[in-house]
Amino acid sequence: MNEYLRTALCLASCGVPVLPLRAKVPFANCRRCVDNACGGRPNMKAPGPCACPGPCHAWAAATTDAQVIDSGPWRRAWLRASAVAYHPGGAGLTVVDLDNTDAIEWAREHLPATQTVPTTRGEHWLYLGTMPSANGVRPGVDIKSVMSYARWLGFGTGPMAELPDTVRALVNKPAHAWPVSRPLAVPVPGGGGQCRHRTPAFLERGIAMAEQRITAATSGVHATVYATFLAVLSTHGRCGCLTDAHIARLFTAAQAKGESPRHCTDAWTNARTTLGV
To answer: Which of the two residues, 218 and 186, has the higher pLDDT score?
Structure first.
């Protein structure tokens, strides 16, 4: 039996929802699930159930059903997998992902001790309890819980503490919810005219087209997401139109295609840097 499949079945038997990762990201949507043609999945807040037998719905594909995990489509996915991931929120957990030594030092000073799992560059601190997930709540700190996934890196050390308010407070700060927490403020065009991008229909059409472009990608998802972010920012990034809600829609579309919150943030930041906005 494949080692990833064996690990997945072991975790599932303990009530931990698992999914396979390919090159550190979930498997992309299969052809019949592209553009949400399958109707989506209930826990992705889309209408109707999805009967797709494969692990193609990112974090929402995570399951504890051994028959599903060891079925044909999933068994083939494990053979191509590079790691096992799990849905922390589905297991009743929150992961504080500390990406560097500075972040670890901050956590040791401000957060209660809990079970710790070493990562390639830092540590995962695991707490009992769930909360909204968020990326970049502090430099080098991500929160992975509900509607997110984390790589399984083995059992940690130390007892697991209850999720503290200090961790919950990190996500309750609107400024850290998304890379841009308020409209990008720039002067209105000279002559007192109204920015054409402030027309609701113009902006809505642009965001809808960007979502469609991302969800329709069948290959090169990373490149498609970056190019789409670049296109949106080049049109709307300097006029004060974009809000958290618009950015959240783009991030949600990208994550549904298997992009991680960190990849979304990096792509958005790189696009802003390229355009100077």
So the answer is: 218
What residues form DSSP beta bridges with 240?
A: none
- What whole-number distance in Å separates Cα of residue 179 and Cα of residue 269? 7
Q: Scanning the structure block, which residue is given the tokens 């802003």? A: 272
Q: Quote the pTM value.
A: 0.63
Tell me, rounded to whole angstroms, the distance of Cα 270 from its chain centroid.
17
Nearest Cα to 54, choosing from 33, 83, 85, 81? 33
- Virtual torsion, Cα 144, 125, 12, 153, nearest 10 deg: 100
| Beta carbons within 10 angstroms of residue 123's beta carbon | 21
What backbone torsions phi and psi does residue 138 show, to the nearest 5 degrees?
-150, 165
CA angle 261–235–36, rounded 5-degree value: 45
- Note whether 163 and 115 are within 8 A (CB): no
Calculate the CA 266 to chain-centre distance.
12
